[in-house]
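Open question from group meeting: does this chain pack into something compact, or does most of it stay loose? Before anyone orders reagents, we agreed to write out a predicted structure and look at it together. Recording both the input and the output here so the notebook holds the full record.
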Amino acid sequence: MLRNQLPMADPLYELLAPYFNDAPSPRPVPTSTDPVVSKYLSRLTTLPLSSLASQEAQSLAQSSHSTLLSIQSLSSRSNAAVIASADHFSTLDETLPLLAEELEQLQSQIPRLDKIAVAFSTTYSRSTENEILDRRKKALLMERNADRLSDILDLPTLLSSAISLSAAQGASSASNYASALDLYSHIKRLHLLYSDSPLIDSIYAQTESAMQDLTSQLIASLRGPNIKLAAGMRTIGWLRRVAPDLETTRNRGENTEGLLGYLFLVCRLSTLVNTLSALEPLRQLADQESQTRLRNTSRSAGGGKVNGSAYQGGQQSERYLKKYIEIFREQSFAIVSMYKSIFPTSTEETLGAEIKSPFMSSGLGSASQQKARQDASVASPSALATFPSHLTDLLFDTLKQYLPNVQDRTSKESLLTQILYCAGSLGRLGGDFSLMVAMLRPEETNVSDSSEDDDESGEGEWVEVMKRHRELAGRLEALASGVGGGKGADRGGSLRVKSRA
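Structure tokens returned:
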């Protein structure tokens, strides 16, 4: 229908066109090609004349008013956006040329950017080696393993804390020593795995310094006055782990205790010497008696006659020697027995051959025994082989110095019996030195050396005491093996026969 009426709209537009120019309006004159104008003119042709005369003006006024309200509402809602759009639109004249200029510059820089990108990808490719990439990889690796590195750096501090706590609690803190040794083993294993790492080398150096302190503490614990067998075995075991070099044998075919045996004996000997040094007040009193005896002896040698009753001292020397021998007996037995428990020897024959007789170096024994001793003398002796002889030298040096001060016969017999008991105690471990009593000269056992009768009486005194001691030892051995048993009686009888011989 509209298609049939559009051609009729053109005459209507021409009819109304003169009226467009009569009323001045800011709006431009509508054209016949405008779709809105064509649509409205087509609508007018469908309306009757009465509607055009009465209702069309009112309809146009209502439409104009509603349109005005809509425009006002839109302007009210979009006031800020319209103003901003107007402002931006006003700057388009300046920004568009600048944008075009920058686009030209970007286009000119694209080849250079492409060249740089290609060079970057070539330089930092994973297929090629690059120092910067290596540093970055190391940094990333360090970041991922920061917690592990922190734990490794804390190892020397933990080790020092464990060692300090062990030193504060003493040798009884087995758990602290075990923790310290476990940490040391872990650090040592890390050092073997990563020997080329400066960080591990630094940590290992700090650990070695701490382990030297631990070694000093363990050695100091071996010098404790009241160390027990269990504590000694634990300490030696820890030293084997802390300082394995001390356990290496010196030569092939020798004892396997290594330097630890020497270290143990030296520490315990130091403890014995320190314990004996506590008798210093009694020793000073005994020295005074020695000076008095020597003055009397010098007067007698000068031609003056000194009666046997001129010097009747020796009580302080007796007290000193009793204390000395008692301490010596307890400590020497404890040292040797603990050593044999911690360092068990392969055979007892070697130990007996080196310790039992102190007169082996004097040429006694058969030819085969002398040859065996010559072969044994080629290699350095074991630690325990020469230690009892050193102990006996320590004892007999004291006896030779202070025993002549004792004048009372009963006191001398009591001291001799105590010495023999000490020799028997050490003899249970293979270090009997009872025969060395014969090496004491008569003038050392009896102050009255003015005549041969006095010498013979002094020697007889020692002989009688030794006989009684042998008989008593035989009886005790017989009782221990069973009273009334033939074997025990035979053994006791044989001992008595030997002692009489």
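Observations to bring back to the group:
Residues 330 and 414 are 18 Å apart (CA to CA).
The mean pLDDT is 75.
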